[in-house]
Specification:
single chain, 207 residues, alpha/beta, Rossmann fold, 2 domains, five-stranded parallel sheet, 5 strands, Dephospho-CoA kinase, Depp_CoAkinase, ATP-binding, P-loop_NTPase, EC 2.7.1.24
Length: 207
Amino acid sequence: MSDLIVGLTGGIGSGKSQVSDQFAQLGVTVVDADIIARDVVTPGSYGLQAIVDHFGETLLNPDGTLNRAELRRRVFNDEAERQWLNNLTHPMIRTEMQRQCREAPGEYALMVVPLMVENGLQALVDRLIVVDVPESQQRHRTALRDQTDGNEVDKIIARQASRSERLALADEVIDNSGPIEALTPQVHRLHQKFLTLARSRSSATGV
């Protein structure tokens, strides 16, 4: 059972996966909202059946799995449909994230949620790390990674919390504007800080 839940978030292209991978290499349990979001709509799940009932079977791939690209296209510019989807999936994702964090071995768990600030989920964690990069780097990295033109990337960034909004809620900030090697000392410093915090909590509760 983890005594401490640490949240990790950042804008698109900020390098959240690079950071969470380094925490995982230190033995920290990583609970990733994107992975859970896929799990709650696997074939045979309530989530997938509800989506098919709402949108139709055209949302399915030939193998019966969800066509996530088509679903994103359907809801991206339709606020009512996006809200319907969020109301369906977010409670399931939130419940599963909390369960996995509570049951995680080790002294703390890392909850990775790309839209944590946008969805007000920072209340689920004890400390919040924001992975920070300038918006110009977000655009460049995302366009390169996803082979997406700049206009599409700008639309995604515009729908996310601003850099200043994320930083205002951060307990800790990881600067990922430099080379990947610069992440390691930042992650190690925070890892030791969270271990100390988790142990002090355990001592205070007598666990």
